[in-house]
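Human
Can I borrow your eye for a moment on a structure tokenisation matter? Give me a protein, with the fold worked out from its sequence. Write it directly below this note and I will take it from there.

Assistant
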Amino acid sequence: MSKNGNSILLIGESGVGKTHYGAQLLQRLMKGDCVLRMDGAATNLEPFETALESLNEGRAADHTATSTYVDSIWPVAGPDGRQADLIWPDYGGEQIKSMISSRRVPSSWQERIKSAEAWLLLIRLQKMRVSDDIFSRSLVDLRGKSVENFEVEISDQARIIELLQMFMFAGSTLERPLFRPRLGVLITCWDELGFDGTPVAALDDRLPMLGAFIRSNWGQPTVLGLSALERPLSAHDRDKDYVSRGPEEFGYVIQADGSRTPDLTIPINLLLDCFG
């Protein structure tokens, strides 16, 4: 843990862009020209360094295997001296889905949840299934349907809500609204989304139930957009601009007011505000 025990827990299913964001963020932190900088020795960086090698070659990084398990802990500090540990647990994002399907939070995760001062949730809106779930279809639509032949699955946004509820219960966080842990939502792959408004408007437009749930349970949540790569990359064909300019020249964050910044450490820095 960090020198003062503060930590930020990153949460994201597979396919949301954790690998690319981690690689790009690591480079920014090591370079030290953003709001945040690395403040000590990070642990278990191999997955991110491998991804960064691919980006330096102008290629997308490989998907992390389901079985991969690593706690990567990055000590970071802001310009005012605030310190925290950024924790990337269970690097294979399928383990998040496993928790939801089994409705069980492993003991190792319970410890992380309880000790974290903030959670950063990564969501890729264009991959979220929101139609024809048990919340969006009225009982009238179900009238006359055969029970044996009719199946309605829970939507992805309802699954994310259930995950947050499980984490809230595991952390014994019963008071409302919540100010600890503070919640940050990062809408990834913003360049592929095709949305002109603010990140919170995008969340309310695509996942209104999730947006309402977050506002009703958290005090001062942050919702930002992220494009870690700024453009889609191929795993096989090299992007010449990436090779010539370097991956550090790409990527941006969409702030709460809709403005754009190249500083990929902004989402982490905003969560540091809750640490005092």
Strands lie at 7-12, 37-38, 72-77, 83-88, 118-123, 182-187, 222-227, 252-254, 260-261. DSSP finds ten helices and nine strands in the chain. The longest helix spans residues 156-170.
